[in-house]
Amino acid sequence: MTLSTAGSDTGVPGGPARWSSPAATGGTLTVTEPATGNVLAEVDEASSADVDRAVARAKQAQREWAAATYDQRAAVLRRAARLLEADPDRLLRWLVPESGSARGKASFEVGLVVSELDECAALTSQPYGELLQSTKPRLSLARRVPIGVVGVISPFNFPGILSMRSVAPALAVGNAVVLKPDPRTPISGGLALAELLTEAGLPDGLLTVLPGGAEVGQALVAHPDVPCISFTGSTPAGRKIGEAAAPLLKRVHLELGGNNALLVLPDADVEAAASAAAWGSFLHQGQICMTAGRHLVHASLADEFTALLAAKAEAVTVGDPTDESNVLGPVIDERQREQIHRIVTDTVSAGATLLAGGKYDGLFYRPTVLANVPVDSPAFRQEIFGPVAPVVTYDSVDEAIEIINDSEFGLSVGILTSDAFRAFELAGRIESGMVHINDQTVDDEATIPFGGTKASGVGGRFGGTRANLESFTETQWITMQSSIERYPF
Ligand code: NAD
User: Fold this and answer.
1) Ligand 1 atom showing the smallest separation from residue 255 Cα
2) Which ranges of 68-158 would DSSP assign to H, the alpha helix?
3) Which residue's C-alpha comes closest to atom 35 of ligand 1?
4) Active site residues per annotation
């Protein structure tokens, strides 16, 4: 069996590895470790022309896969879960250096990939339709059928799970997939996942990984035989994909950026709130769509909260993530670091007080706390995608809700309080796809319908039986009667 990813010379850490793939004929992509600048691997790069070949193979393979019994599809996904569970290092050893992930974050991500595979194995055996009432003596039913070839485009920050959360459910319900990971993380976001599924017995052609940039993604979006695009990434790129897909009448799932608020109510335990806030803002260097990017703290708690948060920021260790004592690693590249630093600098110029951080060494950006942040400053309004906690104070809860909703984004919100039911009522007034009461904003599980509203997402949710069925199948209405219906003419 030959999947598009032929595997690797996994020579890490003794020098760059080589991943070759007959499906990718566009040249060579050099993958560097953000922590050191060292070359981690060389990978065959795809060209737009490779998209045609991959889609043609996928289309052919999909027919047989869709006709396979549910337990045949489940067996592949379950085997992949067991292989990864038995040897998490097969993904960790790429994920840590390639995406600059601290060990804890990377292990959590690998656990999510295992759960995703298990949940999707279970998805195959779920009921996939309903019997409908009819005014005629006939069988009337609606069933879910595979879409065909699903194009998956994924980002760099949680490359393993953000690819697998589209790949696994799409395969589970009988589709084939062409996956374009981020060019900075083609291994943990694609090649290593395909290698795992191949080893688990996934038949040829059902998952092709095409490492490459936006042009390859655009070719996938434009391809007439790819009726569905499952995209996770930035809001600007999502808009471009939406624009390209609209005239083609394609289904698109767009899971996009966020600027997530952490609301600290006056009755919250400040110490616990500061700890939740630090985790929510700094984990994985703030490079998470659900990162707490706006802290709204009641004026009565503000001084204590910001002092505690700044102390936590100062105490966090930042460095090469292959050294397990480092809690945070590097940001992904210089462009990203420049953007973070520009936003921090502009916000300080706009009147904010820098309480911690605001400086960097190479790609290692120190966890940063900004107090007295103007609500119209860049750090408060924009998605920073860096380890920055901007804090704003408020006097009334109504004012806080207004500030939270005054954002183009609507992904995740955390509310910290000693009155959880009051927070539950407030959740109904908040424009956000996800709300966590007495937790920070970063969370995910394979069983939940992950997703945002407004500029954070549209077109489908990922995770859990219902959302996965809705996102990765079409509905077919079937009627059946025993003889041909008679008509007046
Ligand atoms: P990005 O949008 O630049 O890239 C994501 C992927 O899209 C990459 O594979 C990239 O090559 C591809 N791409 C970029 N432009 C494209 C185009 N015009 N056509 C087709 N493909 C294109 O994202 P990034 O900045 O690298 O990643 C971070 C962003 O992703 C942040 O905004 C973050 O919030 C968001 N994100 C969202 C979620 C979510 O679930 N909502 C999860 C993780 C990251």
Assistant:
1) 41
2) 70-86, 89-99, 103-123
3) 233
4) 255, 289
pLDDT at 175: 98
Q: 234 CA to middle of ligand 1, Å?
A: 4
Ligand 1 centroid – CA 231 distance (Å): 8
* pLDDT at 3 (0 to 100): 30
Regarding the beta carbon of 241 and ligand 1, being less than 6 Å apart is answered yes
User: How much is the mean pLDDT over the chain?
Assistant: 96
Q: Report the sign of the C-alpha dihedral through residues 264, 329, 334, 358, in that order.
A: positive
CA of 23 to the centre of ligand 1 (A): 23
Burial class of residue 130 (count of CB atoms within 10 Å of its CB; 0-12, 13-18, 19+)? exposed
Q: Which atom of ligand 1 is nearest to the CA of 452?
A: 41
DSSP 471-484: HHEEEEEEEE-SSP
Is the pLDDT confidence value at 98 over 70?
yes
Q: How confident is the model at residue 2 (pLDDT cuts 50, 70, 90)?
A: very low
The fold of 260-437 is: Aldehyde Dehydrogenase; Chain A, domain 2 (3.40.309)
- Under CATH, domain 4-256+459-477 is a member of which superfamily? Aldehyde Dehydrogenase; Chain A, domain 1 (3.40.605.10)
State the average pLDDT over residues 279-297.
Answer: 98
Q: Which amino acid is at 330?
A: P
pTM of the shown model: 0.96
- The per-residue pLDDT for 5 is 40
Task: Provide the 8-state DSSP code for 328.
Answer: B
What number is the average pLDDT over the span 51-71?
Answer: 98
Q: Is the CB of 219 under 6 A from ligand 1?
A: no
Q: Is the CB of 442 under 6 A from ligand 1?
A: no
Alpha-carbon span 388 to 367, nearest angstrom: 6
Ligand 1 and 217: CB distance under 6 A:
yes
Instruction: Taking residues 195-215, report their average pLDDT.
Output: 98
Q: Which atom of ligand 1 is nearest to the CA of 221?
A: 20
Ligand 1 lined by 452 (C-beta under 6 Å): yes
Domain boundaries, the chain: 4-256+459-477, 260-437
Q: Please indicate whether residue 237, judged by its CB atom, sits closer than 6 Å to ligand 1.
A: yes
Amino acid 133 reads Q
CA of 485 to the centre of ligand 1 (A): 52
Neighbours of 225 (CB within 10 A): 14
Average pLDDT over residues 397-405: 98
Question: What are the pLDDT digits (tens) for 453-471?
Answer: 999 999 999 999 999 999 9
Q: Looking at residue 16, what is its pLDDT?
A: 82
